[in-house]
Amino acid sequence: MRILNLKDNPLFIRCWYERMRFSVVVSAITIMVLVVGLIFLSCYINQETLTVYDYYSKTHTPVPWLNFVFFYISIAQGVLIFFFGTRSISVITSNEKMSGTLDLHRCSPITRINQIIGLLLGAPILEWIVFFMAMLINFVITLLSSIKIYDFIVLYLGMILSVLLWHSLIMFFSLSSSKQRNRLGVLSGFILIFFFLPWILTMRLSSITHLTVFPSYIQLYQSIIGFAQKVPPWRSVNDWNILHGFYGFKIATLPFQFMVQVPLLTLLIFGISRKISFDDRPVFSKIQSSILFFLMIFYLTGSIITNTIYDSAMYNYYAYNYAILYVICFFVIALVLSFSATPTHLIYSKGLRRVKKTGLSKFSLSDEANSNLLWTVTILYIASLFYALFCYYLAMPARYAVLVFFLLSTQLILYTSAFEWFRLSAFRRKMAYFWTLIIILWLIVPILGFVTKPMVTAEFYEYYLSGLSPFFWSGQLLPKLWGPVSLTLLSVLITLVLINGVLAMAAVLLAYKTRQSIQNSLSMEKFVYPVS
Amino acid sequence: MIEINSLRVDYDDVTAVCDLTLTIPTGQIYGLVGPNGAGKTSTLKALAGIIQPTYGEIKLEGIDLELHPRDALVKIGFMSDFPSVYENLKLWEYLNVFATAYGIAQKKRIESVRYWVKELDLFDKWDTFISDLSRGMRQRLALAKTLLHDPAILLLDEPASGLDPMGRIEMRKILKKVSLSGKTIVISSHILTELSDFCNAVGIMEKGKMVVSGTIDEIRKVIGAKSELIIIFNELSEQDRGNFKEILSRSPQVLNAKEEPVLEFRMSFSGDNQQASQLLSLLVSAGLSVCQFFIRQANVEDIFLKIGARQVS
What we know:
The complex is a heterodimer.
Chain A: H1 10-19, H2 22-45, E1 51-54, E2 59-62, H3 65-99, H4 101-106, H5 112-122, H6 125-144, H7 149-176, H8 180-202, H9 206-209, H10 214-225, H11 237-244, E3 245-246, E4 249-250, H12 253-277, H13 286-310, H14 312-341, H15 345-358, H16 373-394, H17 398-424, H18 431-452, H19 461-465, H20 470-477, H21 487-523
Antiparallel strand pairs in A: 1-2, 3-4
Helix pairs in contact in A: 1-5, 2-3, 2-6, 3-6, 3-7, 5-12, 7-10, 7-12, 11-13, 12-13, 13-14, 13-16, 14-16, 14-17, 14-20, 16-17, 17-21
Chain B: E1 2-10, E2 15-24, E3 29-33, H1 40-47, E4 55-60, E5 63-64, H2 69-73, E6 76-79, H3 91-101, H4 106-119, H5 135-147, E7 153-157, H6 165-179, E8 184-189, H7 192-196, E9 201-206, E10 209-215, H8 216-223, E11 227-233, H9 238-249, E12 254-259, E13 264-269, H10 273-285, E14 290-296, H11 300-310
Parallel strand pairs in B: 3-8, 3-9, 6-7, 7-8
Antiparallel strand pairs in B: 1-2, 1-4, 4-5, 9-10, 11-13, 11-14, 12-13
Helix pairs in contact in B: 3-4, 4-5, 8-11
């Protein structure tokens, strides 16, 4: 079966039957016609007031009303395909999983990629059809107005790519989180991102921005109203460079979007394929996790380095902001990927039994049942290359850069091994303890340090208490590493590395002992053969 | 033909299937019996490629499921114990989706769907939404989906579960009809009477292990299951009872004769038809008014009970 042969794709056909009922299609098209008609009407009636204010020339310049029609229709399309399309894909994918129909497709000869394409394009099929109808209207407007065909293509290719990435992400979550509490976990993640988003946005990271559809809209907006302005709608050329810079190189919107979105989309498709194949597997293999980590750090470093080049004002005053962002992003990405690649007790023991059955003495390096320690060390090696590059551009003194990297590495090993220990030991059914411990170490203890600080005279007392929380120590320590560093602060840094190092070793040992104990218990297992 | 070699399926703390080795020849109707949690569903799901076994080799019609899943899966039709359906689709749409999944050519899809809808007596529900179908109809629909691509192997997991007595009888009739088609069928159930009628081989599972497996005759021999002889008299005086007991005592094939209820005697019988005929002649010539005389072969239920008494639970 060819990949894009949708008429022979059972999941696409299923979605088509379900979503393309006559009454629903008529309603959707009616609403689209009404919305587009309303946009046309409002722009036509108010064309006298459709002007653009130029901050530099301090003048209002009229803009052709059709340009604004195009702009508003594209906004409505975005809302439709991102919001309603997301809802459809989430509901249909979850239903496939919960009702057991996905199992029926799993035991049919249809390939995984066809299953994914069927759901990805089929679930929001109604939204896509309305989207393309509106796009046709915008194409006609493009021919009739001053909007360039090139901008039309950039907008829609960028938008379609972003939609596919976003829909894949939602599909991935819907397939990964079958339990209610997992869904709540995902929701909490989104809420957390929402709180951190304003801060991340102030960092103006080009690669993060290009993971979204916004650069396409910015490009479009410039195309629609730009001609009416004496200078581009950017406050400075610098802003444009920051938005499109990557390791100091300038890349146009569409290639930049393809560069950051296509690899992630590919990895997501791999993840979805794994979840569709067998539900109990980790979402990514160790190699896929490493690639994903590499990509994220590659993107992040490229944007930060660009900012240090083009945004000298921001860099000179707030270089540590980038360092904090880097450390936190590094830690969060590495930890999330590490946790997701950590084998469960079941996967580990299954792997051991397989190894035992095949007569091998140990796991292969890429075996997903293997311990996570090796994976962690691998990503730390990858990370160290980018980290070195990053420190060079941020002009962080080498000795402090090394200490910070050690601190970060030991913490990563500590939490990865602790998580592995929890997952493999008898505590695996009491993961709440692990998360409680994390909250205590990352939040309660550092806050306790701040609260009790007035009672203690020792300098940097609170740093010791926040030493196990990367979110706190990075915020406290990093700003002080540019400029003269006192001996006391240096000793604090070294002590924190030692504390975290010892704890990391203890966690590694615990995880190792637990693995040994599982191996011993399985070696005692007797195999029973059938009576007949 | 199904070949299973050292199949093991593990869940977190439970070994659902433990080193199962089994061969089911082409055309055999194999009943997988066992209490809930015995590992029947896990075995069937592993055969259908739905769950990944810990290890083990599965060959379907000689094709390795792990190495060539697409080629192997096209050979099977799997029906789960709970009918997984698309509530918002019409009956024919649902079947058309799966006809597409199994690669039936576009021109033949509707033809094939129509054939199985008629076969399973669902034609008057052709355009009905699945959400409006009863449980029994959904089960039949699920069976139609399973048979749609004419698979060589059928894996039926408790096909009559959740059905009322009428529904069960209907389902049994359909399955009997299907069983005549020469397909290899593996059917699991914990309700033994469901399997008694049409299985020619059974495997009894318990706690993930296959306790006994083979054709019913083979198992009878392995476990020494004897046939039951039932004799019912019209009337029986004290003298007749004495004569009857004496005749039985002279027949070494008869063991453990018990009167239950009055005038009805049940006993183990290890002889053949000729010996049974001789015994009947003796009873009649002794003037005993034999009303009914028949031998009941040990069926799946008896075998299960016999095994259960010895090994299971």
